[in-house]
Amino acid sequence: xxxxxxxxxxxxxxxxxxxxxxxxxxxxxxxxxxxxxxxxxxxxxxxxxxxxxxxxxxxxxxxxxxxxxxxxxxxxxxxxxxxxxxxxxxxxxxxxxxxxxxxxxxxxxxxxxxxxxxxxxxxxxxxxxxxxxxxxxxxxxxxxxxxxxxxxxxxx
Amino acid sequence: xxxxxxxxxxxxxxxxxxxxxxxxxxxxxxxxxxxxxxxxxxxxxxxxxxxxxxxxxxxxxxxxxxxxxxxxxxxxxxxxxxxxxxxxxxxxxxxxxxxxxxxxxxxxxxxxxxxxxxxxxxxxxxxxxxxxxxxxxxxxxxxxxxxxxxxxxxxxxxxxxxxxxxxxxxxxxxxxxxxxxxxxxxxxxxxxxxxxxxxxxxxxxxxxxxxxxxxxxxxxxxxxxxxxxxxxxxxxxxxxxxxxxxxxxxxxxxxxxxxxxxxx
Lengths: 156, 264
What we know:
The complex is a heterodimer of chains A (156) and B (264). With 156 residues, chain A is α/β, with parallel strands linked by helices. Chain A is built from two helices and eight strands; from the N terminus they run αββββββββα. Chain B has one domain. Chain B is 87% helix and 0% strand. In chain B, α3 runs antiparallel to α4, α4 runs antiparallel to α6 and α8 runs antiparallel to α9. Chain B is globular, with a radius of gyration of 22 Å.
């Protein structure tokens, strides 16, 4: 085995390694869709975030416009403070409505933005005033059962 | 009776002490190796040659095993997922299990038995035939000339082989899932891309394979250098390389996983 041939093979080997890594990064991972576009962070306060997790998508009209960057608990007014990292190319009015929704019946939870009509736009650091908490299935079911029970009582 | 029991406890302590002393030797050996690495990098071809022997010659077994692991994952994953009507999630299952765990771990296990054992055998035989002593006599440092290039050759090869293993496995999963079974191709890739994170999953896999590379290469060169210089001693050293590497890989994998993927 002479030196040139070994060099060639090692070169091919490293090239295969880089190709495999690029395949993993671009085709398998979200490197291609994770754009390095500029973002801005706005806060939203929820009474209950349900099962929302960091890195969950933020969607408007079904299109992903950002990600959940951070979730904190505010001990002063007992609310969850969710930091939303939105892409700078998407601007939203000041009175945008943020709600926590579920994709599918039991799918992952995401933040939905419903656009308002204000002329002024949200800037970095702003707080979204109008929010709607996650729907907790147990509460929904118990509400339904109570309603049914009270209906039954009225009929008697 | 009490005498016998005492002997038993003493034997246990003796064995444990031996293990710790060897661990200490291995650590000292590691630092000496790092110290003389600079010297061996002055002749980079020595390391390139070892990348050829441990990396390039392992290409075939790694890519074929990766492909077959992917094929089996595709079949088994589909079998289970279609019961819940979510066969499109096959891409996620194959990609996550390969990039996070199977790629680094199985590639490292194969690498330990394919390349690690041959490194141990080579160094052990050099020691048995007194080539290392001869080098020392000629003022050639055997650690810089023989050990360090083999160590770095293994460390460089391991992440490349693990990435190749994962890539081949995902290709195998694609072949079974999309080409044979007929899972929707768009859903297969897009669901995979939506849930495989570059930093969390792929980079962590690369970090894992790098750590395994250091562990396997160190165990291989140390066992070779520390072997009893007889035919039997060398064969025992090779066995120890494979067994210790496998245990080290699995233990390190558990530790790394518990740090990387806690609660995710």
